[in-house]
Amino acid sequence: MKYSIDLKVPSSDAWLAAVMADFSSFLQDHADCERKASAMATSLIAKYPDRVKIIPDMIETAIEELEHFQQVFEIMQQKGVPLNKEMKEDPYIKQLTPLTHGGTAESRFLSRMLLGSIVECRGCERFRMVSEAQSDEELKKFYKMLWTSEAKHGNIFVELALQYFDEKTVYDRLHEMMVFEGEVIKRLPIAPALH
After folding, report:
1. Contact between residue 192 and residue 18 where contact means Cβ atoms under 8 Å apart
2. At 174, is the secondary structure helix, strand, or coil?
């Protein structure tokens, strides 16, 4: 069953063109994003050890994201692309993070879970675009596998939120956050990066 909702604003062809024109930079950013995604899932466990229902899925998500990092790293090694010397701040995440501030502890927990879904859904859409634009069959297959995995993660965060909040509360907040995310996407500078 699909729990996540569709993105409000699609990624642009200009974004895809920038990625395909500098795929080495995209791989470096992608590797950083996988490490951050694994850390984010782990940090939710650290922050909410009492939310027992999220823990098994967050452990699984953290492991899967780390495996994706390993796979991207292997591709980078084959292509002679080094990891970034330091992980740069992600302008997309920086602009979305205020959505998880303010309000009650309960509303912050809900917003953090839903932000996880939104980021995974955007990753799913963009990995699909990259897969479909690839002429390299191995990369096409790899990014197709990733887009399937990100779609699953996008669902998990919403499904878990529904364990703690009623459907109307979850989907009203998710809709608000998706509208905000669409505005962020429109303003983001075009770069060969996942976000």
Report:
1. yes
2. helix
